[in-house]
Amino acid sequence: MIEVFDALEAQQAEIEQAQAKSAIAENAEALYDDPMAYVYGNPDAEVTIVEFFDYRCGYCKKAFPGITEFIANNTHVKLILKEFPILGEQSVFASKAALAAQEQGKYWELHSALMETRAPLSEENVYEIAEGAGLDLERLKKDMQAKKVTEAILDNEALAEVIGVRGTPAFIVNGELQTGALPTERLQELVDAATKG
After folding, report:
1. What's the chain's average pLDDT?
2. What pLDDT does residue 114 have?
3. Is-cis flag, bond preceding 169, omega within 30?
4. pLDDT at position 133, please?
5. Which end of the chain, N or C, is less surrounded by CB atoms within 10 Å?
């Protein structure tokens, strides 16, 4: 009975992966050419990794240093960051701040600081972190109210649903959905496969 259940589970996983792959191909523009999504690494890199993340996600924070180092050491790979704040209002607030920081050319500085902090992401703490990252707070507060900031988050949520992203972190490498934190070795395998492909 257990073997039958395992076989059914494996079959279901294959079906879901095939559906995700198809949805990724159909939504390539929204995934790879979103002007609100920050690109880390070489913008002209041949291999693209897309990450859906939440600033309050412990696994995202744990994966952050490894992925950052991996991209820095692999100039043929770029990382597209998709704000996917699913862990409550503090997550949404932090994502809005990060997206708005692009207006001051400080997205990466704030993104890194938010990923590295262990403090709760209250409004007060997010502003304090933003100030520490070199942002003009009054301008940031104003830019956070922009319609395009809210729309970027809603668009990412809709995209995640279509693709089958149910949690964070989630990665798309070589057109395939990978859920959960990826060890560097697995990331290397996936990138190598994408490079050969």
Report:
1. 91
2. 98
3. yes
4. 97
5. N
Query: How many angstroms separate the CA atoms of 115 and 63, rounded?
Result: 10
Q: Where are the alpha helices (DSSP H) in 27-88?
A: 28-32, 58-73
Q: Sheet containing 47-53: give its strands across.
A: 38-41, 77-83, 47-53, 170-173, 176-179
The Cα–Cα gap between 98 and 105 comes to 10
What pLDDT digit, counting tens, does each position of 73-109 carry?
999 999 999 999 999 999 999 999 999 999 999 999 9
DSSP string over 96-132: HHHHHHGGGT-HHHHHHHHHH--S---HHHHHHHHHH
From CA 189, how far away is CA 51, in angstroms rounded? 17
Instruction: Supply φ then ψ for residue 38, to 5 degrees.
Output: -80, 140
